[in-house]
């Protein structure tokens, strides 16, 4: 209507000017005086009033003929927030455009980065190959070392067996030595007892010898006294004989007495000789007993010395056997420690071999991944330099409800056809790797219900190349019933129109986030229509009070595989 209203205003201005001028000339010619004014002033006043009247009449006629213009003017205040929202949306679109340009620049930078990463990947590939060769050489070296250590372990096991056998023999010898030592100690104790007995017997013999010697000495003294008496008597007898010879004549009578005395003297002499002989015999017997006792003492001393020497030898043998036992125990402990150390080394070597095997497997996996990423990056880089992207990363490729795992091939075929419409090419044009497909099939079998599957681009895919998929499956169950309030919020009615609009926009965004978090693609969710948004703002502006509760609901049941149309709920 604006293109009709503007020409009308222009024509109306001309008509008003012409009519006002004509009326003013006529009023001036008639020299009309109003309110005592001059004719010229009156003509000017008439011209102004007539122009205003003509304009008001023309505008009234126009509004009568165009009632929609009246509604538009009446709703101008309500449309201002909408216009502001549109301006905001335009700003956002411009910002998105700027961000898209920035993304394009960033994509170019990423392309440059990918070139550098490609070169770095090549260098890493070379270094990885070198590391792989070094790891293989190290594995061979470790294998040789493991064989050497195994041989050493075998030899040490043999040595340990022989040492254990020697230790057992040493234990037997030690036991025999201990038994011999015990018997020797017993013999030594018996010999000690014999020595004590012999010492007692020797002491008794020595005492008897001393007694015999004393008796022999007493007998010898008695014999000497008897010899002295006999000598004295002999001298007396000689003196008497001489006195008798000289006094033969004088003591004739005394001859008989002297003869008797001589007989007595001879008898006494004989008795003294017999006593001396018996004393000599007793002395000889005592000397023989003393000699025998000395011989027995010497024999007992020799026996004791021999027994002491045997005991000393047995003690030294016992000490040597104890030293051998301690040495064997020390060697056995050392061998056990060496055996434990060798077992620890063997365990460590096995762990090192296992870790090396895992590192080699990880290196092979990393190398394969690097090669795949390198090939993919090179293809993507080449395609991004020459063509446009068919699908940006994480962009929705295809989504549909899959009744069971048997329908997965049909779903993937439909996804490939959908990708072809966006420029993807290949056989098939949409690919799902074996591992991801196995995981998806497992999930479908686990759910065992009608399932909503959505597949997105795993990476930036250029037009003319296949797109790699990453898929997710969720039960196609009812998340929210139709006309059920999904999310509520309290808005401040005293805020400015812009703040009020921002509160409602935050509520809508939170509602969309709740829905997409539960499995509905963001592409399936439609926010509030502009008309509904403007009407909601008008109703909130017309409300009294400080706050109001606003809810967002869906017109139909919300499922992961259904389109969602939201509308506001204002109690």
Notes on the protein architecture:
With 571 residues, the chain is an alpha+beta fold. The protein is built from nine helices and ten strands. Helix content is 75%, strand content 9%. The strands form three sheets. A four-stranded mixed β-sheet has the order 2-4-6-3. A four-stranded mixed β-sheet has the order 7-9-10-8. It has a two-stranded antiparallel ribbon with strand order 1-5. Helix 4 packs antiparallel against helix 5 and helix 4 (76-246) packs across helix 9. The longest helix is centred in the first third of the chain and has 171 residues, at 76-246.
Lay out the secondary structure.
Layout: H1 2-29, H2 39-65, H3 67-74, H4 76-246, H5 255-386, E1 389-391, E2 396-402, H6 408-421, E3 430-431, H7 434-447, E4 451-457, E5 461-462, E6 467-475, E7 485-492, H8 497-517, E8 525-526, H9 530-542, E9 547-554, E10 564-569
Parallel strand pairs: 3-6, 8-10
Antiparallel strand pairs: 1-5, 2-4, 4-6, 7-9, 9-10
